[in-house]
Amino acid sequence: MIRNTMYQKDYILRMIEMLGDLLRAIFGWISKGKLEEAKERINEAYLTFLRNDAAFFHGIPEEKLTEVLLADHNFTHGHLEVLAGLLHAEASLNDAMGESGTATGFFRKSLKIYEFLEVNDRTWSPERNEIVTKIRQRLTLSGDADTGSLA
């Protein structure tokens, strides 16, 4: 059993590293205006990494997001980290497409997950901390100042 858990943790860590590379590429495409490429890769990543399409996650209310995924779908903190990254990328894509209302919803969901992980995950990540700060700043600038303690 311990060996299985070790393999699962290694797999999730590799998955997060791969996602990090993909997210850097996606943010690069967004900054270069290659929005269709970014959109395609985000949609593929949901299926590849989380085994559900984006619509599945979009349909879960923000206030129940972590609870539903942990309790009903056996998500781990690693899965949540992946989802938070994808929602952040999707929010940035929608922002670049001029769909700020949709972007705000995705930023809020991403922030909710990141804040949950800050409280409940045993590891501290400077990258995660930086992302949380940027999302909070973005939400404050958009007038969605209710960004505190969403977790």
Task: Describe the 3D structure.
The protein has one domain (2-141). It has helices spanning 2-31, 35-50, 54-58, 65-72, 77-96, 100-120, 126-141. It is built from 7 helices and no strands. The protein has 151 residues and is mainly alpha-helical. The protein starts with a helix and ends in a 10-residue tail after the last helix. Mean pLDDT is 88; it is low at 147-151.
List descriptors.
single chain; 151 residues; 77% helix; disordered C terminus; mainly alpha
Strand content: under 5%
Largest sheet: none
Are there runs of 5+ residues with pLDDT below 50, and where? Answer: 147-151
Secondary structure: number of strands: 0
Distance between the termini: 31 Å
Mean pLDDT: 88
Shape: globular
Helix-strand pattern, N to C? HHHHHHH
Measured as a percent range, the helix fraction is over 70%
Task: Please tell me how large the radius of gyration is.
Answer: 15 Å
Number of separate structural domains: 1
Q: Which structural class should the secondary elements be placed in?
A: mainly alpha
Tally the helices: what do you get?
Answer: 7
